[in-house]
Amino acid sequence: MYKRWKSALFPSASYIPANDDTQHEILLAPEEQDDTAELEQFPLIVYWIYFAYGIAMLLPWNVFITASDYFSTRFAGSDYQDNFQSYFSAYFNCSNLISLAVLLWIRQNKNTLKVDVVVPLSVNLTIFLFFALSSLTDPKESAAVSYFWTTIAFMVMTGMTTSMIQLTVLAETSQLLPKYMQAILFLGIAGVFVALFSLLTTLLFKRQQLDAIATFYYFISALLVTLVAILGRFALFRQPAYLRLIRHSPSTLDTIPMTMTTAVSPNMNTNSSKTVMRDIITKKSSGYIFTIVYIYTITLALFPSVTVLVRSVNSIDVATFISLHFLLFNIGDWIGRTLPIFTWCQVYSSKALICVSLARTLFIPLFFNCNLHDSSSSTPLLNSDMLYFALILLFAISNGWLTSLVFIAAPILVSHDEKPIVGSVISFFLVVGLALGGLTSFLFK
């Protein structure tokens, strides 16, 4: 019975290990072997460029939600002081979802969409500059509401730019070796850097007059990371091996560098490409789609809108405790995303991934039994900071691990020409999960 259950849920023999680039070649048709040879000629800088893309992709989201103490101060006296995290989650992820849906629809019906990736990155850079400069101004209670809605407007804009970056980068890497997909899935490292910087500034700048300087450098650091990603984009198109691959790839247009291009082969007409899309959604990748949606519905429903309400039982000050919780979550998420490089962590069966994602529902009652702020319970069930931090780590590791497995496993089941479509589809439904989670967080408030 056990062996039958194990073979049904963990059929490892039918899947390709994510870290084995040589085995990736057997997924390609003979005429595609030359492309794989081109991929192996990529210099190491290409990997690090995609690593930078992964960091820049969700950098706005990480920067905004981690600056919890700063925005709580700026929104003081307004109705949004204690629940702005839910608004951030809902507006950012819903705008990301809507813009991603529009971009996919345009690309599906018009075959190509000319959007320079440097443009959304430059918009993010400008927004970081605005918040860096505005952090130097004195917060006024009378301006709290207007500053809140200004922030929301920028959250909507960064949600849109994030979708542009996601669609391009994931479509590109789905045509490359798995290690490049893993490079951008290390985007959790962005959250680690942001959370670590936030914690350090919280510990180092205790006096009120230094808070503005700390916040200024916080946003400037995000600006510099975005600038590196922009420069990396130009450096990528100076790599001869990459240009040769783009020139011969049936899934990209060599005449439009740095653009979003159709994710299907040019020999497919619109009707056939729509059929491929429906087939992927309803048959080939439905299990992975459900998994990615449910992962992020649970994650965003609880983090950060609920988790920031947990207080230390050992009298650690609120700002430090919240910053530490952000750091632990992002470290755990990063660890989870790296786990598939180990063979014993490679679980690619859609049935197994669905079961594990459903099991994460248990985190809801667990977090609500921690030491929540304004909780009616006098003594919480999990009355320990260490237990809470362990819970955060497990929550984050499972999030990152399952995400990496879905993005690696889903393209394996389809043909080479369909791989970019799968990357875009999984990316789209990840954002669906984020939006659902952001909206669900209002219920838990």
UniProtKB/TrEMBL annotation:
Keywords: Membrane, Transmembrane, Transmembrane helix, Transport. The keyword DNA-binding does not apply. It is a multi-pass membrane protein. One of its GO terms (cellular component) is plasma membrane. The keyword Transport applies. It comes from the Eukaryota. This is Solute carrier family 29 (Equilibrative nucleoside transporter), member 1/2/3. It comes from Mucor circinelloides f. circinelloides (strain 1006PhL) (Mucormycosis agent).
